[in-house]
Amino acid sequence: MKINPVKGTHDIYSSTANDALDLEYTFNVMAMAYGYEPIVIPTLEHTNLFQRSVGESSDIVTKEMYTFLDKAGRSLTLRPEFTAGIMRAVVTNKLYVDNIPLRLFYNGSCFRYERPQAGRYREFHQMGVELIAPTNPGLDAEVIALGFAYLKEIGLNPILKINYLPAKDSREKYLKDLKAFFEPNLDNMCEDCKRRYEINPLRILDCKVPSDREIIEKAPSISTYLSDDDLKHYNEIKRFLGNIGISYEEDDRLVRGLDYYSGIVFEYYFDTDNSDFAGIALGGGGHYDGLLQELDGPSEYSGVGLSFGLERLISAYQNADTEYKGTGMRPIFYMAPLSEEGLDLAHTLATFLHENSVHTILNYEIKSLKSFLKSANKKQARNIIIIGEDELKKGFVTIKNLESGVQHEVAIDDFPEIVFSILKENYEDDDGEIQSLDITKGN
Ligand code: HAM
């Protein structure tokens, strides 16, 4: 019986799986460079965690959660995002004790019951960071800069949109004025907007219905409601970004789809002529106050974080003309034994390479050189190690660089030493990027 994948889910395999691994690996390395520590949290949480944090006015909580009763009748939800679960974990494990600013990064799947379409899945993957500390514009800017630097690193030209959501009193005033503005238009607006009007009118600004957008464009701008403190903080963040040459567009309609934000909010797009990516955010995030407190954690700390969607990064990366070469998921060596005896030697050498964490492929078969070359190229191997009759007779192997075409005979006794000198000199360049091996240096 043929069983299809669940609607909105998908398999990631072959070169796309390699791209996924590369993109995640680069994100993790970059997060660690900024001082973030890994955290792994459960996929399942109590439903009220998301109700209380992501919020009753968000589409996620009202329409998109995978919620069910377990056998003991508890209401559980598959995480639709990470921030709430991370805050729960921070409180559960008191991770804030003697560890502030607390910097955490994560990768994993999320679940949202959305209408599947390009760049929108029901199970998708996020990678992100959360930073918990007393509010500080430098820390807000750090998180924004990390996401920006990451997109640059993987060869996507980032477009950064930012906005600032005012704190309590100014926000109350803005919400009141928004309500007054939308009230006479409400009959002509979508059902979601009518609901948002009652629960959180700010979320109307996020509505994508074209006829609603025309009305929304005329709504009062949030930027005129910022208090002196808000403005000071916002300007400081912009100054920090300016100091390191990060450009941004200010968008006073950017409110994000989750209720917990206050302060800076931002989204990343990328510069492309491909209209398939128009309006598709690769990632986003912002500052939030009160989430820890809401979960009975300390009140003196706020948070700021971002998440990227892996699937969107993969398709952006695959469609972009990027020079990013990945982090080395391609095999360094592909073994090509041309006889039984050659296979024994190939086995010994491949074992040595495997034990030393050098990416090497040996398929325990004897084929023609032509056929090995075809397979090695298909796997995008950087070098092939040929062990033919001639090689065995003379006690050497031939290492051919498949990129440059240059080949060299390496005496078996010298093999370990030469492989290591090659790897040491060529494995990483000054930026830590893994390079193709130039085996000429070994001889
Ligand atoms: P979000 O904007 O809801 O923010 O999601 C972040 C990213 O996840 C999006 O920009 C998008 O790339 C990806 N994404 C969201 N939904 C889907 C989907 N259905 N299919 C594919 N990709 C999707 C958050 O989740 C916040 N927790 C971000 C954050 C972290 N704020 C503070 N800290």
Secondary structure topology:
Layout: H1 14-33, E1 37-38, E2 44-46, H2 47-53, H3 59-64, E3 66-69, E4 75-78, H4 83-92, E5 102-111, E6 123-133, H5 137-153, E7 158-165, H6 168-182, H7 191-199, H8 210-217, H9 228-243, E8 249-250, E9 261-270, E10 283-288, H10 291-294, E11 302-309, H11 310-319, E12 333-337, H12 340-355, E13 360-361, H13 369-378, E14 383-387, H14 389-394, E15 396-401, E16 407-411, H15 415-426
Parallel strand pairs: 1-5, 7-8, 12-13, 12-14
Antiparallel strand pairs: 2-4, 3-4, 5-6, 6-11, 7-9, 9-10, 10-11, 14-15, 15-16
Helix pairs in contact: 1-11, 5-9
The protein binds histidyl-adenosine monophosphate (HAM).
Folded structure, characterized:
By secondary structure, the protein is an alpha+beta fold. 37% of the residues lie in helices and 21% in strands. It is built from 15 helices and 16 strands. It has helices spanning 14-33, 47-53, 59-64, 83-92, 137-153, 168-182, 191-199, 210-217, 228-243, 291-294, 310-319, 340-355, 369-378, 389-394, 415-426; strands at 37-38, 44-46, 66-69, 75-78, 102-111, 123-133, 158-165, 249-250, 261-270, 283-288, 302-309, 333-337, 360-361, 383-387, 396-401, 407-411. An eight-stranded mixed beta sheet has the order 1-5-6-11-10-9-7-8. It has a five-stranded mixed beta sheet with strand order 13-12-14-15-16, sandwiched between helices. The protein has a three-stranded antiparallel beta sheet with strand order 2-4-3. Strand 3 (66-69) and strand 4 (75-78) form a beta hairpin. Helix 1 (14-33) crosses helix 11 (310-319). It starts with 13 loop residues before the first helix and ends in a 17-residue tail after the last helix. Bound molecules: histidyl-adenosine monophosphate (HAM).
